[in-house]
Amino acid sequence: MPAPSEDTMIERKKLKVGIETVSNQQSTDFPGHWPGESHEWDLEYFKNNMRIEFQHEHANKLDLTFSLIGVDTSLANALRRILISEVPTLAIEDVFIYQNTSIIQDEVLAHRLGLVPLRGNHDALRWLKWYQKDEDVPDHEPKSDENCVRLSLNTECRWKEGGLEKAKQGVTDPDELYENHNVYARDFSFEPWERQTEKFGDDGVRSSHPDILVAKMRPGQHIELLMHAYKGIGQDHAKFSPVATATYRLLPTIDILKPIVGADAKKFARCFPKGVIRLDKVTSEDTSAHPEECAGKEGEAKAVVDNPSLDTVSRECLRHPEFADKVKLGRMRDHFIFRIESTGQWDSDELFLESIRLLKVKAARIKRGLTRTNAQAQ
Amino acid sequence: MSAKPIIQGQEFPVITPTSIKDIDEIPVSVDQARVTVLPGSTKSAASFQFEGEDHTLGNALRYIIMKNPDVEFCGYSIPHPSEAKMNIRIQSYDDVDVHDILDKGLQDLMDMCDVVTEKFTIAKEEFHSNKMQS
Fold this sequence. Notes:
The structure holds two protein chains of two kinds. By secondary structure, chain A is an alpha+beta fold. Chain A is built from twelve helices and 18 strands. In chain B, strand 5 and strand 6 form a beta hairpin. Chain A: It comes from Karstenula rhodostoma CBS 690.94. Chain A: Keywords: DNA-directed RNA polymerase, Nucleus, Transcription.
């Protein structure tokens, strides 16, 4: 049996989007699905067909968009899930409050502190170990410089010089009246101990977003506390998640089956976000190839697909009867437009590589745990 | 957090240690205790239970095992949402040992990860060198 043509392979990979339905959703690249075709796992075939194309990286390296092409949804989704919930980060877990006379209650303040993303020297963060919080576990590791990062916050709100007089004159702007009335994440100070001074260097551990507002105070109010940050994973608490979001979407496809020309072309372009459809001129080839639609319209506008990745697949064009049989919408089932937005502790590209490494570790651990003599579950 | 298996009277965290630097940090016995074979297994049909795994590994492993032509059926399930357990069922043709199929599946998945890492690194370097030039 002849191997299927390239066009057939592409057609098979297309998720079809209709007015009310989606079809051809499931992967079919399995042995036994298509008569006479193998589809057996082949590393060389995978190597030749799998592609990664970087699309956009923000200057701060925290927001990354790239295309992951030629892999199955199950792999893309595994990586996305690991990014969100299994890549470890450092976050504040214990807060020891010595003084808090602000109006934010202790527990609410502690919760807010926990959510502040931290950053520090990457090698030092990698060097950090887990801290097992459960005191009941035998051989429970004590807190040390290797598993616990200490930060402190000590701030007191006061009247500015002459602030009281200004208040009497009716000034209400807190910036003019008080000092330290806003407590920001930049006010944390890193309290290194033992090897941490050398490992974390001069920058220490600090918030990756210094302008996060933690609390507001008025003169006489005082916050004094000590924070212990540990390594954790997003599965335990969202504050340990290294990403704001890690998402993917499938590349949209737009197939124009019959030429859309003239005023219709402009209307068609307006059905899509800007940049998706381009307007070209009808050429003499078009008129001879499609005389029914194009005869006598040479030089008029003709709709051409420009950049389908910008499409949101709103299906607006399918609502208009004049386009209904002229266009087919779909998505490529093996083309993932991946977007990773880091919260600041790690760069997005590091996070993606770490997620692949962790998936491999998962497989490796099961592989070595597998023996012929594995216990039968009760 | 997830359930912790007890090995030689000692509790071990299950999911957390996937985020490790080196797999040797965790004793092999921990992983051996995480894998069990459910009752009723034969050479060519068995259900395996992995403790501390979820859809992340389950679906990826199911896909790669289904790519094996010796496999008649492969499916996975999470029997209960509040138990950190994942079951995977494999049935093979021609009396092929399902242990070997599972082992091959895990190896293929690891090879796949290596290819993705390699391609990502190359794509990253290309992107950055293009950016430098422009």
